[in-house]
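Colleagues,

For the teaching module next term, I've prepared a clean inverse folding example: a structure given as tokens, and then the sequence designed for it. I'd like students to try predicting residues themselves before seeing the answer, so please don't circulate the second half yet.
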């Protein structure tokens, strides 16, 4: 009888070779429990195409929400969703893609790597939270210092009482100034949410004689088309490996693509397009996600040695997008809200923390309990 712990390290071809030699007997129950069956082609194609279609429709759903939600509610919604995308992207890279790229999922069935992965993410986001808290503390100190300087420069005249008219004019002037500053800062913050946060540092450059709409449209098609293609390859390759692995990567892509696509729509509309034109151009760039999915499925089925390379490239892309592109813009968005008021900045801070934690927990849950959920669904 072959030790069950050794069986978990063997491929199906090696198990068949051992059985055919006649020197060993293998408990088929143990084999079925330890050797994970790949999803059938029907499941891969149906589930994968459904997921890619959902990703493609993110922009349409976002435009619908823009029409029914108030500006304040929409701003909070986007703030949370961007943070959710950051947590899910980094969580997918550390909990799913990197272990699959190094073959840890097949060899470490006790999932000891999950424990180390938690500390990797803890190191990233602990400094992220500390940095935000320091920004808030320094903002409060600078604000108090500015109030003291203003009081020292313009002390109250104690020689006689101020008239009611003078007090009213002073208060009215300060109120108008504060309202003007708040409206300008709020507009800048919303532009940051709609453009910089959601577009992964897309820069729009125009040359004399170029068509404004044409230039922006081609930038969106080629720039986002490449990004969507890599997303599709990642989803296709992961679904050929396991359903739960594919779903975890797909959810991370959806959470990240939702604010991303809304940012693209905002750029196209600001360039002079109508909403319908912007949606058409955005859908054209999303077609590459279907192409990438087909490529990922084909390569995943033809050669298993290609899958670790795909997972490694996807992990690097996910980490770069979340840490290098989205986190700095999240910090800038919170600083913009702090210029409006301390309460607005704290609200943005807590929304971002909740979103990041929700994304990380979801990816952790799918990494630890994904196989059990698959077994329950199969039963």
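(Answer key — instructors only)
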């Amino acid at each position: 009888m072959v030790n069950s712990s050794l069986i978990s390290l063997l491929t199906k071809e090696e198990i068949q070779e051992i059985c055919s030699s006649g020197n060993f007997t293998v408990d088929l129950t143990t084999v079925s429990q330890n050797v994970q069956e790949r999803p059938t082609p029907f499941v891969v194609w149906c589930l994968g195409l459904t997921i890619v279609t959902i990703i493609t429709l993110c922009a349409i759903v976002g435009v619908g929400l823009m029409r029914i939600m108030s500006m304040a509610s929409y701003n909070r919604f986007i703030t949370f969703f961007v943070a959710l995308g950051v947590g899910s992207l980094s969580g997918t890279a550390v909990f799913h893609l990197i272990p699959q790229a190094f073959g840890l999922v097949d060899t470490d069935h006790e999932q000891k790597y999950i424990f180390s992965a938690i500390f990797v993410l803890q190191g990233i986001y602990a400094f992220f939270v500390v940095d935000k808290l320091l920004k808030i503390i320094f903002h409060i100190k600078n604000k108090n210092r500015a109030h003291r300087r203003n009081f020292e420069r313009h002390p109250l005249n104690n020689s006689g009482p101020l008239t009611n008219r003078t007090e009213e004019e002073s208060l009215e002037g300060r109120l108008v100034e504060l309202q003007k500053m708040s409206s300008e800062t709020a507009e800048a913050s919303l532009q940051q949410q709609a453009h910089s946060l959601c577009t992964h540092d897309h820069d729009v450059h125009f040359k004399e004689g170029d068509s404004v709409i044409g230039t922006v449209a081609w930038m969106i098609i080629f720039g986002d088309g490449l990004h969507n293609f890599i997303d599709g390859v990642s989803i296709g390759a992961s679904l050929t490996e396991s359903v739960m692995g594919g779903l975890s990567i797909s959810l991370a892509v959806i959470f990240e693509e939702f604010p991303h696509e809304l940012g693209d729509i905002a750029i196209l509309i600001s360039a002079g397009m109508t909403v319908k034109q912007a949606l058409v151009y955005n859908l054209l760039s999303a077609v590459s996600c279907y192409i990438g999915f087909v490529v990922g499925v084909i390569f995943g089925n033809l050669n298993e040695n290609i899958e670790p390379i795909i997972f490694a490239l996807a992990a690097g892309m996910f980490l770069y997008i979340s840490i290098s592109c989205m986190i700095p813009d999240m910090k800038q968005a919170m600083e913009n809200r702090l210029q409006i008021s301390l309460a607005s900045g704290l609200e943005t801070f807590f929304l971002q923390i909740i979103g990041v934690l929700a994304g990380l927990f979801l990816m952790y849950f799918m990494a630890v309990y994904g196989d059990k959920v698959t077994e329950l669904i199969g039963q």
